[in-house]
Design brief:
2 domains; six-stranded mixed beta sheet; globular; mainly beta; 4 helices; 339 residues; 22 strands; Immunoglobulin-like; 9% helix; nine-stranded antiparallel beta sheet; single chain; Lipocalin
């Protein structure tokens, strides 16, 4: 992956400038702000835009136990001139607030319609300590969380809601002092795939943007399908390490800001719905299946249960212009598990 990024440096520099939505991976721009104490993003949040709290998802293989870390940061331009002692707590109320916002809405606002999570039972995890210290002269502290994936109920989507309750010094972030850590077992579709246009098509036909004929797909590409829950995966570009659909503009590369496909499978391994992983309508973009596909989009498997191939046609709809804008016709071939 790193080699690909280096060799594409000139093109990819323009990619981020051309995209329609700024990269929101980082909690704040440290320049020009007073320092705040916050949970540092371990990855791109899977929560909907506008969510009351961020949700970060970690997917595990089925194993007796797995340990991961969560970082707490003294973020901003100032240095740290003293030990900062932090008190953490598991906060079920925060998870209830988040779930309510997804299903019925908060404070009179419309529901966001995102995924909801169950509070992970206490017998399925341990936390190294609910007290952490950011040492003088440093800006980060970590806590270790151990989960027991082989004991998970695979029909449920668990989350551990952590809150920074207090700090001996400094200001707590209003938004990022809570972290909802979704902890799920990787589903059977999870992995890295080599993606090409459907048979008989050129790259220009594998991705068609009806608003600009110069925008065409880049094939082959390496795409991760990342577990959301037992039957849902998010599209993630492995080559460029971003959640988005990279394409050629004719003079460089770009991607559609605030949009990435989410594939939802049924019990027969057929994709029955495609939505925008950032929320249907986010940045005026939604997703749907292309019903013109001749055969159903069904994931096939090897005899040992390893994913094999999926052919899928899907569409990005530009809501503000009522246009079915971009059409993808692609074949996904499994190449291996992701980290």
């Amino acid at each position: 992956m790193k080699k690909f990024i280096v060799t594409s440096l000139v093109l990819i520099t323009g990619l981020f400038l051309a995209a329609c939505l700024d990269d929101s991976k980082y909690a704040l721009d440290p320049e020009g702000y007073q320092n705040v104490i916050e949970f540092l993003d371990p990855s791109v949040p899977v929560s909907q835009v506008g969510a009351v709290y961020p949700v970060w998802l970690t997917a595990f293989t089925v194993a007796p136990q797995t340990t991961f870390t969560q970082t707490i940061s003294f973020s901003g331009p100032q240095s740290n001139d003293k030990d900062i002692v932090l008190q953490l707590a598991v906060d079920p109320i925060a998870l209830q607030e988040y779930n309510q916002q997804m299903t019925t809405g908060l404070n009179g606002a419309a529901p966001l319609g995102g995924a909801t999570f169950e509070l992970i039972p206490t017998n399925l995890y341990t936390i190294s300590s609910l007290t952490a210290t950011i040492p003088k002269g440093q800006k980060e502290a970590t806590v270790s969380i151990t989960v027991f994936p082989d004991q998970f109920d695979l029909s449920k989507s668990y989350a551990l809601p952590l809150r920074i309750v207090s700090a001996s010094s400094g200001t707590l972030s209003a938004h990022y002092s809570v972290a909802i850590l979704a902890t799920v077992v990787k589903n059977k579709y999870d992995g890295i795939y080599r993606v090409v246009q459907s048979a008989g098509l050129t790259a220009a036909q594998g991705m068609v943007d009806v608003t600009n004929a110069a925008f065409v797909g880049t094939y082959p590409k390496s795409i991760e399908l990342r577990t959301v829950n037992g039957n849902t995966v998010n599209y993630y570009d492995h080559d460029f390490d971003l959640q988005g659909h990279v394409f050629s503009t004719g003079t460089g590369l770009s991607y559609y800001g605030g949009f990435a496909a989410q594939f939802i499978f049924n019990e027969s391994d057929q994709v029955t719905d495609v939505v925008n992983a950032f929320g249907q309508g986010n940045n005026n973009r939604s997703a749907k299946l292309n019903t013109a596909q001749p055969s159903p989009p069904i994931m096939t498997f090897e005899a040992d249960g390893t994913p094999k191939t999926l052919e899928i046609w899907y569409i990005m709809r530009q809501i503000n212009t009522s246009t079915d804008r971009t059409f993808w016709k692609e074949v996904y071939t499994y190449t291996g598990p992701r980290d």
